[in-house]
Amino acid sequence: MKISRLIIENFRGIKTAELFFPDHVVLIGDNNTGKSTILEAINLVLGPDRLNRRPPIDEHDFYVGRYFEDSATGEPAEEQPVEPDEAIAAEAVVEEAPASEPVEASVPEAQESNEPEIVQIRIEATITDLSDEQKAHFRDYIEWWNTQDNVFYIAPKVEGVDDDAIVEALRVTFIGEYEFNEDDFIGNTYFSRSLEEGGAPQFFGRRDKQFCGFLYLRSLRTGSRALSLEHGSLLDIILRLKEIRPQMWESTISGLASFDVASAPELGITGVLQSINTALKKYVPKEWGVEPHLRVSALTREHLRKVITAFVATGEGPHAAPYYRQGTGTINMLVLAMLSQIAEDKQNVIFAMEEPETAIPPYAQKRIVHEIRNLSAQSLFTSHSPYVLEEFGLDETLVLSRSGDGVLIQAVVSLPESVKQKRYRQEFRTRFCEGLLARRILLAEGATEATAFPAVARRLAELDPAKYNSLEALGICTIDAGTESQLADLGGLYRGLGKTVYAVCDSQTAANEAAIRTQVDELFMHNEKGIEDLVLNNTTAAALERFADILAWPPHLAAKYPYPKVDIVNAVGEYLGWAKGNWGLAEFLAQCNEDEIPEWMRETCIRIRELSQPVPEEAYAKEEPAADEVIVEPGAELPTEDVDPGVV
Fold first, then answer.
1. What 3-state DSSP class applies to 416?
2. What is the pLDDT averaged over residues 249-270?
3. 527-538: per-residue pLDDT in tens?
4. Is the Cα torsion angle 283, 286, 288, 291 positive or negative in sign?
5. What 3 state SS string does 93-151 have?
6. Do the Cβ atoms of 382 and 36 come closer than 8 Å?
């Protein structure tokens, strides 16, 4: 069983999305792109316990928080109070449903023309690779899916389903919305065909979801209750899958009821309780309540489920501590072991996991990915770890990007001809991984530029934070392209994945410059042959001499320049050439003042900031000046006569 297609509308940060998944996939992209939202959406559709929460959704689950609109303007409408008679009418039209299924209230057909329009969250999952048991259970709702074209087969020719590319599929849809009459949010999952064929929509209930095994591990958030007996905990799920019903509640409650806490007189607590009892008898009859004493629990099944937890031995001795007090990595591996137990029992299961690298060393990250892929029919991961990402092929790596209006798209890595598969794998951790994970990329011609630009931007941000930002603060990762010939190819690679790409380089031929500009969003090119020449020709002697004082000169340069300040430009120039690609230029720029940094570098940092953080349009809006108002443009001299200082 696997999810072949997922359609999302109006859910959290996603306005619309249509995604197609292979058997195993890792979802990557910058933070807040929508990776976790995708897994949460699948959980709403297929998670057997997700809809137990009431309400299953809230205001913040709707795109930009908008769950109804004015039917005339399309703008968010003001909530109207529900009249008592309207509430009674709404209750009258609620249809009865089985106790195990959610109840759906029908909406009155007659609506006022000015009634706000409901915005729905809709999540549709297309499930393929069904087992024989699943096909039999869902036989009334089976459709046919073309795995080559990723569309449903709807041709009238019945024999067409015999094609190898046509397989059985099941569509299910979650619908969530705001209910005006109840002033609350509702959400249920349905068989998609029943929504389209007319008649009463058929619920895709808890029992149906159990036939579609979906396991979701949300990073560290699952660990707090994994080994408790609370409803929905991992241990509870395992017990239910194995059809084990612990017959322990009566004996446990009976044993705890007979155990008095702190009953020994020497502890002093019983004396205090007795004095309270004596005072109580002065005011109320004994039928109202007497004899207060302490117990270790509320002595109910629900309370015991919450307080009973597993203890784990630590170290070599007999001491044990609650499992949730273990190290973060230990908890993660413990949770993983339990989930793998569930997967082994269910066999045909979809496994989703967020950031398996959290508190886990690299070798264990790889083990986690390998084991989950073997245990599940389909696995979906999100990750920022190169050790996790390199376990997936190019066709299993989906790069996500989201536009400003909430449209989420996916892209598959397509290598240019100059980047062979072997090179991609060899340089994945050092050159490609960071770019795949970032939203904005600065391609540097070589290693010197790749180390110098982050250093100079960071230094300028320290000197004047109102004017400059570090590249990291702008969400920009810097990648060493290796050579100038790779700038265009890598620019095309990352730009094709929906990234914003900038490039910095030395002076280029007209042909090279044109090729690079067509593949990047903006090119920053200086007129020197090398970046070292740019810095040496545009800095100050004071900066060079200060740098010479803090250097540990290599022996050969110390012998050649025993007094480097006598020939400071050549001395530092040779040092920068010797330390090329080894942070030499970055170290020099990191100790410069603003006016000692080349103007071209400063202007480039300012321009990158403008591109990454554009000034809102409202900032440019100008009102018509009043009759006595004088508008002074930036940089102009202030008038000296006949001007009221209060209106300048």
1. coil
2. 72
3. 999 999 999 999
4. positive
5. CECCCCCCCCCCECCCCCCCCCCCEECCEEEEEEEECCCHHHHHHCHHHEEEEECCCCE
6. yes
The string of DSSP letters for 394-413 reads GGGEEEEEE-TTSEEEEEE-
Q: What is the mean pLDDT of residues 317-338?
A: 73
Nearest-angstrom CA–CA distance, 406 and 409: 10
Q: 104 — phi, psi (to 5°)?
A: -110, 130
Contact 94, 105 (CB under 8 A): yes
Expressed in angstroms, the distance from the first to the final Cα of the chain is 70
Total H helices, total E strands in the chain: 23, 21
How confident is the model at residue 40, as a pLDDT? 94
Residue 609 has pLDDT above 80, yes or no: yes
The distance between the two most distant Cα atoms of the chain, rounded to a whole number of Å, is 104
Write out the two tokens for 219. 């990073």
- Residue 642 backbone class (left: φ over 0; alpha: ψ -120 to 50; beta: rest): left
Tabulate helix, strand, coil % of the chain (nearest 5): 40, 20, 40
CA neighbor of 214 nearest in space, from 340, 350, 335: 350
Residues 617, 619, 620, 625, Cα dihedral to 10°: 140
Peptide bond into 285 cis (omega under 30): no
- Non-local CB neighbours of 289 within 8 Å, separated by 6+ positions: 280
Which helix (H) or strand (E) segment holds residue 571: the answer is helix 568-578
Q: Cα(448)–Cα(430) distance, rounded to whole angstroms?
A: 15
Tell me the pLDDT tens digit for each residue of 294-316.
767 777 877 777 777 777 776 66
Return d(Cα 353, Cα 26) in angstroms, integer: 10
CA distance 87 to 94: 11
Residue 338 burial (10 A CB sphere; 0-12, 13-18, 19+)? buried
For 140-162, how does the pLDDT look when each residue is reduced to its tens digit (9 = 90+)?
999 999 999 999 988 877 777 88
**Where are the strands (E) in 440-560, listed by range?**
440-444, 476-480, 500-505, 522-525
Length of the chain in terms of residues written? 648
The residue behind tokens 């997700």 is 50
Helical (H) or strand (E) element with 560: helix 555-560
Residue 131, number of CB atoms within 10 A of its CB: 13
User: Between the CA of residue 488 and those of 481, 578, 581, what are the distances in Å?
Assistant: 9, 28, 21
How many angstroms separate the Cα of 301 from the Cα of each of 179, 260, 306, 445?
A: 34, 19, 9, 66
Which of 532, 542, 545 shows the shortest CA–CA distance to 577? Answer: 532
User: Which secondary structure element, helix H or strand E, spans residue 184, and what is its range?
Assistant: strand 184-191
Rounded to whole angstroms, the Cα distance separating 428 from 397 reads 13
Q: Which residue in 10, 55, 17 sits closest to 35, CA to CA?
A: 17
- The closest of 419, 406, 385 to 492, measured between CA atoms, is 419
Residue of 179, 172, 171, 170 whose CA lies nearest to 56: 179
Q: From the CA atom positions of the chain, what is the Rg in Å?
A: 33
- Residue 203 is classified by DSSP as B
pTM greater than the 0.85 cutoff: no
The structure tokens listed for 222 are: 């699952």
